[in-house]
């Protein structure tokens, strides 16, 4: 019996444990932190051995295979020991994909991957038997066990791609690549770019890679590191022969001379970046032969993703917008770009080596006040202090929203778009977004 050790008892860990047990592995789950009560119940109910708040090396270094949670960096000494012992380390995506013949759509990118994955699933679900998993919702491994869909849309982070070996999606999507998580890649952008491109490394000439042709990082990497797959670029700037482009408020998608044209005037999602997300998702739908009418209707009734430019409430003609999912500068760039009204901007958190320069034009033009919400706001104060009339620090969401309420005038937008990770004052970006929404509702 092969021994499968799982590091991390979260959603992907517990899903993998269940799938591993069903596939006759001897399974052991080890978490250095506390395992959430709901996950513990599942492990106990399924008689899977587990430990928390420690890693017992003698029970881990005897593994045949290790599935490591994407949150654990390679630098950790336990991971180094496993590698030295020649024990294979995989991500949940790699492990689970061995047990399915489903058609897989894998979506990665620095920004837009959740929206693109959710939208793609939304476009496919009326006509195909399809699951949504990966970095989102229920784990891929667990869905294979319980639902066993014929198709999967997977949102995949670079951390999950770091530990793939044979994983090969039929359709891969790279939304964009901008500096993010560089702390995990020795502050070398090229390493991060290579991690993203692992999504296509096993693809053959029967597979497809959909990507943003306007993103120079992607196009330059493809020039020097060609892939085997059929390329289907999308662009806002140029006409694309095989792929998708945007012209005269229409999306034009061509695959093997088969063209569909979609008007975008009634798209519910706002902003240029969302037109790109819609192009990527519609290209997948067109590839998988979803009817044009279905694609059009689904694009029109898509509600978007929680914590991503989510309109919360309008109070005294001021719109409050929750963009807590903007955990890097580029995501905040899109948010500021899409705003038409003057902005009271709530920003801050754990800075991952951010360069805020690309935001300067928008801040000068649109932002009237900045509220810094983090444990350490010094960099934000230094960077933006001279650009706006009002810049205020706080460490409480409730206070940040009260200050915004005082500063904002009729017709303004109050925008939470932190450009930073959330782990200083909040559990995660969802917690941060919910606290914002609660504070707004309590005004």
From TrEMBL:
Pathway: Cell wall biogenesis; peptidoglycan biosynthesis. SUPFAM superfamilies: MurCD N-terminal domain (SSF51984), MurD-like peptide ligases, catalytic domain (SSF53623), MurD-like peptide ligases, peptide-binding domain (SSF53244). Gene3D superfamilies: Mur ligase, C-terminal domain, Mur-like, catalytic domain, NAD(P)-binding Rossmann-like Domain. Keywords: ATP-binding, Cell cycle, Cell division, Cell shape, Cell wall biogenesis/degradation, Cytoplasm, Ligase, Nucleotide-binding, Peptidoglycan synthesis. InterPro entries: Mur-like_cat_sf, Mur_ligase_C, Mur_ligase_C_dom_sf, Mur_ligase_cen, MurD. ATP binds at residues 109-115. One of its GO terms (molecular function) is UDP-N-acetylmuramoylalanine-D-glutamate ligase activity. It catalyses: UDP-N-acetyl-alpha-D-muramoyl-L-alanine + D-glutamate + ATP = UDP-N-acetyl-alpha-D-muramoyl-L-alanyl-D-glutamate + ADP + phosphate + H(+). Its EC number is 6.3.2.9. This is UDP-N-acetylmuramoylalanine--D-glutamate ligase.
């Amino acid at each position: 019996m092969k021994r499968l050790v799982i590091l991390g008892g979260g959603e992907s860990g517990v899903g993998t444990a269940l799938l591993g047990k069903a596939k006759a592995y001897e399974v052991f789950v080890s978490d250095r932190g506390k395992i959430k009560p709901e996950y513990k119940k599942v492990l106990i109910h399924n008689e899977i051995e587990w430990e928390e708040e420690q890693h017992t090396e003698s029970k881990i270094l005897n593994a045949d295979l290790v599935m490591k949670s994407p949150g654990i960096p390679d630098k950790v000494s336990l991971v180094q020991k496993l590698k030295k012992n020649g024990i294979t380390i995989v991500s949940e995506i790699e492990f689970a994909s061995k047990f399915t013949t489903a058609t897989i759509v894998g979506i990665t990118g620095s920004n837009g991957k959740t929206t693109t994955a959710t939208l793609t699933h939304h476009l496919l679900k009326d006509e195909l038997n399809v699951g949504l998993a990966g970095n989102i919702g229920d784990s891929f491994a667990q869905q294979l066990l319980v639902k066993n869909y014929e198709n999967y849309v997977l949102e995949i982070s670079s951390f999950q791609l770091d530990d793939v070996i044979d994983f090969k999606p039929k359709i891969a999507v790279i939304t964009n690549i901008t500096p993010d998580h560089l702390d995990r890649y020795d502050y070398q952008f090229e390493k991060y770019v290579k991690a993203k491109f692992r999504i296509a490394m096993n693809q053959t000439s029967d597979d497809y890679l959909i990507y943003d042709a306007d993103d120079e990082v992607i196009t330059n990497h493809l020039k020097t590191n060609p892939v085997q797959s059929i390329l289907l670029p999308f662009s806002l700037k140029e006409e694309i022969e095989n792929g998708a482009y945007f012209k005269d408020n229409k999306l034009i998608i061509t695959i093997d001379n088969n063209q569909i044209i979609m008007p975008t005037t009634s798209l519910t999602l706002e902003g240029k970046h969302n037109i790109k997300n819609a192009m990527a998702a519609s290209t997948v739908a067109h590839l998988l032969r979803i009817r044009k009418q279905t694609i059009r209707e689904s694009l029109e009734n898509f509600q978007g993703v929680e914590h991503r430019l989510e309109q919360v409430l309008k109070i005294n003609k001021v719109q409050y917008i929750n963009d807590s999912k903007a955990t890097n500068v580029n995501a905040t760039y899109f948010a500021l770009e899409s705003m038409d009204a003057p902005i009271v901007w709530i920003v801050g958190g754990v800075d991952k080596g951010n360069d805020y320069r690309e935001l300067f034009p928008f801040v000068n033009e649109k932002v009237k006040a900045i509220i810094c919400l983090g444990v350490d706001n010094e960099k934000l104060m230094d960077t933006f202090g001279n650009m706006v009339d009002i810049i205020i620090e706080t460490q409480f969401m409730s206070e940040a929203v009260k200050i915004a309420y005082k500063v904002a005038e009729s017709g303004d937008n109050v925008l939470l778009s932190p450009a930073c990770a959330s782990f200083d004052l909040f559990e995660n970006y969802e917690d941060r977004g919910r606290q914002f929404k609660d504070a707004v509702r309590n005004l």
